[in-house]
Amino acid sequence: MFRAGQVVTYRELWAGEVMTAWPMRVVADTRDAVVLYLAPETDFRAARAPDGGPVRDLADWVSVRQTWTGGSLVRIVPRDRWYAVDLEYDADRIFVGYYVNFQEAIRLTAQGYDTVDLVLDLVVDPDGSGRMKDEGDFADAVSAGHIDARTAELLRAEAARLLNVVERDGSPIRAQEWLAWRPPSDWGVPTLVDGWQDVHT
């Protein structure tokens, strides 16, 4: 387990390559969940289509340098679950909603955590209304064989479960503690460490 305040590298992999990589600070690292903080103006690596747009084909993408602008986020990653929940804030530290990223359960590395993004997402507005995102891209990834049928079935069931939770509770996860949390004033903007692109299988 990493200590609070430590900078780690959170990565999304695909076919043995790094699609995205964020330098993030550890807020909490427990047996149940990992909680991370992404600071405004953080430089990170992001997957993009060769034309610079969003990735539509998982067989055709590049990793490019990006800067996280507009605000910050707190990422809650329950252990052994196939999703992460971002609490997103604007530049004035006003909460703007939850973003649920469906992904493989995180794996511990020497530098942080690795996962595999599974395309499907759930967006929840501050008023508690939720909607699925990227369903068409998810269906295309399944049809193309990038995501196998069994994984797709499990993911659809998990997405439906979380959407039901949102409809009942107005949020995908109990997060009152983290909604009230603020980063220490001495936490600067971290940078990616050398070796962020190395994948050891």
Question: Please, could you describe this protein's structure?
Answer:
This protein has 201 residues and is of the alpha+beta class. It has a single domain, classed as FomD-like (FomD barrel-like fold, Beta Barrel), CATH 2.40.380. It contains 3 helices and 12 strands. The protein has helices spanning 135-143, 149-169, 176-179, and strands at 7-14, 17-29, 33-38, 43-48, 62-67, 71-78, 83-90, 95-103, 107-108, 112-115, 117-124, 130-133. The strands form 2 sheets. It has a 10-stranded mixed β-sheet. A hairpin with a 4-residue loop joins β7 (83-90) and β8 (95-103). The longest helix has 21 residues, at 149-169. The radius of gyration is 16 Å and the shape is globular. The model has no long low-confidence stretch (mean pLDDT 94).
Order of helices and strands: EEEEEEEEEEEEHHH
Strand order of the largest sheet: 9-10-1-2-3-6-7-8-11-12
Q: Can you count the helices?
A: 3
The number of domains: 1
Q: What does the largest sheet look like?
A: 10 strands, mixed
Average pLDDT across residues? Answer: 94
Q: Classify the secondary structure makeup into a structural class.
A: alpha+beta
What is the correct CATH architecture? Beta Barrel
Can you count the beta strands?
A: 12
Query: What is the end-to-end distance?
Result: 21 Å
Task: Please report which band the strand proportion falls in: under 5%, 5-15%, 15-25%, 25-35%, 35-45% or over 45%.
Answer: 35-45%
* C-alpha Rg (nearest Å): 16 Å
Query: Helicity, in percent?
Result: 10-25%
Here the CATH topology equals: FomD barrel-like fold
Low-confidence stretches: none
CATH homology superfamily name: FomD-like
Shape descriptor reads globular
At the first level of CATH, the class is: Mainly Beta
